Task: structure prediction
Amino acid sequence: MSSTDILVIGEHHNGKLRAVCLEMITAAHRLADEKGGEVVVAVPGSDVAGIASELARIEGVDRIVVVEHDELTPFLPGPWVGAVTSLIRNLDPSAVLLPSSITGRDYAARVSARLDVALVPDATGLTLDAGRLVATRVVLGGRVQTSVSFPGSAPALVTVAPGAFPRAEPGTSSAPIESIEVSIDPDDLRASLVEKSEHRAGAKGLTSAARIVSGGRGLGKAENFALVEELAEVLDAAVGASGATVGAGWRSHADQVGSTGHTVTPKLYLAVGISGAPQHLVGMSGADHIVAINRDPDAPIFKVASFGIVGDLFEVVPALIRQLKAMAD
Result:
């Protein structure tokens, strides 16, 4: 692997590739073209041949590296830290892109510390300046955008925020696939998985849902989230919540969408009674289509909405539910 190459860590869950990995490939392809390098996608795990084959057909991918190890599935941070660290040392890329997922955030910082290299989390943009990688990210709840440059020759580590780049599409050719062995220190295997229970928000988990209905302070009180839940049920959608409603104790933090909650990229995001604080917009602006329902025509949510309904949500949402049910009959 050339020191001008970009390494993408291909995360997956329950046998399915995380959508953010396709977005990272787009970012990596742009950087590799400018640096004159290749895009190398690593697929850590066990029994990952199907995922490797899927990634090999994606436009912009030059090589696939399979990292098979029994300790990498199910996910535990220790083995992944060991495997990814070993992989980076073996391949010596110029930059490593990791997903800003719950799991990616878990192991990325530890890999950075072990390699003693810089890490920029939650990047929303990546460019080159005189050959150096520059990562853009938002801080202070989305109110300020900063650019961070990586000096020196060490690999630059970046976790990429979901929704920051377009998803790469399948191409007409298939990249070569190879296997590589990694060493995992016994100290990385000290923890074991005893039990796993998956939180499910609404009909589907927030991070994997194609449709999400989120409620905000405009609902007035916690009991009125029943409207959001009913609409979500009709749409077969997940239920999300703004930071204000979580702070008020109306919903669990597990349902929060925003800079201190989940970053989501569904096909449809329906915001009910959400004004659109910067902290919330950071977490959902990557949705394909955004529909906002709010009685305030000047609410910031309308600036990012694909469609907006200015009106009383207690009239609009029941009417929408009735219409959707009638269409389903």
Observations:
- The chain is about 30% helix and 25% strand.
- The chain has two domains: 6-189, 206-328.
